[in-house]
Structure to design on (278 residues):
């Protein structure tokens, strides 16, 4: 395995990313990234192709996905790494999330239709190409139908949290998500925790989270320092990544700039080994 950069938070067209798997890996290679994790929302669909390409290019793929939990009305994203994809309990959880995303999209579209936007669920399903439906799929549909002038306009005027057409997800408890990830051989990390109040982070620590995503584009230097200290205080793992989506997110410059260290990845693997021996 060649020594290179690491990025453990990436998205493809299998969820709400702009690039298909092969296109994303081309970008990673250009940026010098050798170890990576694709963390599409609620799906492993990109991982088979990603694994084949990783072998071809002497890269290391860490299997991952991103799930949603909630505490006191606050949405929290959980990154699951190293999960055994053959375990039915975890796949059933992903199926549940995917179905609920479709129901949520239907509720959002009802709100948009009340505002005069002629968008049907089939329009959004065509945009998603079989991926779990996310708000960016709806935003892109609005843009293609020329109801808005930009992705950002669709999202922030209509779809963002507290916007007129926003609808909340159906959430699973943090305790259940952490327990299921652990039972299925994986590690759980709070994604971009710098955006959360400390009491919510502490609740997830009590729920059994394995680590914190310390390095992230939304974190300033002081947030990163605080999160590292918090992780050390509670004997948590640390990780990081670009949270790259591409396309209308204007985040192309993030690849290769928000990298966890090789020591952090080795610590993750050692924690997994200890869990298996416990």
């Amino acid at each position: 395995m060649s020594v290179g950069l690491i990025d453990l938070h990436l998205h493809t067209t299998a969820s709400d990313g702009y690039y298909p798997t092969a296109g994303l890996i081309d970008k990673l290679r250009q940026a010098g990234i050798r170890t990576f994790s694709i963390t599409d929302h609620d799906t492993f669909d990109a991982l088979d192709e990603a694994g084949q390409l990783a072998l071809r290019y002497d890269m290391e793929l860490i299997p991952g996905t991103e799930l949603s939990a909630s505490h006191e009305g606050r949405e929290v994203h959980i990154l699951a790494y190293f999960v055994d994809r053959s375990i039915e309990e975890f796949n059933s959880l992903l199926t549940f999330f995917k179905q609920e995303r479709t129901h949520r999209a239907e509720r959002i579209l009802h709100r948009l239709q009340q505002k005069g936007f002629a968008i049907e669920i089939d329009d959004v399903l065509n945009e998603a190409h079989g991926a779990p439906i996310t708000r960016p799929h709806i935003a892109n549909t609005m843009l293609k139908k020329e109801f808005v002038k930009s992705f950002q306009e669709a999202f922030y005027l209509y779809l963002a949290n507290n916007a007129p057409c926003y609808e909340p997800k159906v959430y699973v408890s943090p305790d259940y998500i952490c327990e299921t990830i652990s039972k299925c051989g994986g590690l759980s990390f709070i994604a971009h925790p710098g955006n959360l109040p400390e009491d919510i982070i502490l609740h997830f620590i009590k729920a059994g989270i394995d680590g914190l995503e310390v390095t992230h584009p939304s974190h300033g230097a002081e947030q990163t320092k605080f999160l590292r200290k918090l992780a050390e205080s509670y004997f948590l793992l640390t990780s990081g990544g670009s949270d790259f989506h591409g396309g209308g997110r204007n985040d192309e410059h993030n690849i290769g700039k928000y990298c966890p260290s090789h020591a952090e990845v080795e610590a993750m693997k050692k924690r997994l080994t200890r869990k298996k021996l416990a």
User: Anything to note?
Assistant: The chain is about 45% helix and 15% strand. The beta strands are 5-10, 33-38, 60-61, 64-71, 74-81, 187-190, 211-215, 237-240. The two ends are 29 Å apart (CA to CA).
